[in-house]
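user: can you give me the structure for this one chain? C-alpha cells are fine.
assistant: on it. calling the predictor now.
[tool input]
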Amino acid sequence: MMSLTKVGCAAGQRRVWLTGNAPNLLVKTIAEHAGVPTPSFVGYIWKFALPILFPPLVVISILFFS
C-alpha cells in the first residue's frame, strides 16, 4: 500500500520529493511571521489530507487490487 502511495504521489515530482520538508517549513515560518494562520500537522491531516487524498487512494486500491 505504501508503494502505491509513493508512486501515485511522487511520480513526475522526484526532485520535489527528494528535497524533503525544508521548503514546507520555510513557507510555514514565513506565513506565521506574517500573521497568516497555518494549520498544525494534525489539523492539516484532518482538513486537507484525509478528505482530498484518501478517497483517490481507496478508488485506486479497489481498481488495482480487486
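assistant: here you go. Residues 2-65 form one domain. The two ends are 13 Å apart (CA to CA).
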